[in-house]
Amino acid sequence: MVKRILVSNDDGVHAPGIKALVAALEDLAEITVVAPLAEQSASSHALTLHRPLRIKEIAPRTFAVEGTPTDCVLLAIREFLGQKPDLVVSGINQGPNLGEDVLYSGTVAAAMEGSLLGVGSVALSLASWRYTDFAAAGQVARRLVSRLLRRELPPRFLVNVNIPPRPVEEIRGFRLAQLGSRVYNDAVVKKTDPRGRDYYWIGGAEPTWKPSPDSDFAAIEEGYVSLTPLLLDLTSPTGFGYLSGIDLEWP
Ligand code: MN
Predict the structure, then answer these.
(1) Could you tell me the pTM of the whole model?
(2) How far is the CA of 92 from the centre of ligand 1 (A)?
(3) What is the mean pLDDT of residues 121-144?
(4) CA of 111 to the centre of ligand 1 (A)
């Protein structure tokens, strides 16, 4: 039976990364693209609730939505596709989605939405803003997705994948990795405008990472494709332990 894949992203339906992804997966499954019309990077898990959404077919099996990545996946799975796809694949994002940055990422949010709606999902990112050749990343996507289509996925499966910016012969393989942890220095740059008023720029400096050999960041640095399965249940066992130890007597 032919498999069906829903493809989305946050760089927009016209981005080179989504085109490379579709080209790489085309003969593995029936692909439907439902992606934002405009770039929505760092839109996180935003939903559009206060205006109508329209879906426009811009090419065969390729649909643009004037909304967020989450809007796209929600509309596609709950309404538009008619039946659930076998897999949601989001990307290939231009730029890394490592460590805590997954919480801001529209690429990851699209995959997360798929997983929340009961479809196994993959988020793919090329871990560089400057390396614009998606050939190797497309091959990585193809290798991984063909394997994921072969076996039934566990419930709420969601994997965050980062691909090192290098030719495919120089990629060392897949590595299972933990989410790394960012060091937040110079995350906000404060300047003064020509009228003497302060303004702020978020994400001014290149990120740095706490050293950790099993992190996604380390995998990328060493030339591996990082695979990090993510949980949707954000309940904290330590927070739970702390709160159950304090006096919560009522009133
Ligand atoms: Mn993006």
Answers:
(1) 0.93
(2) 8
(3) 98
(4) 13
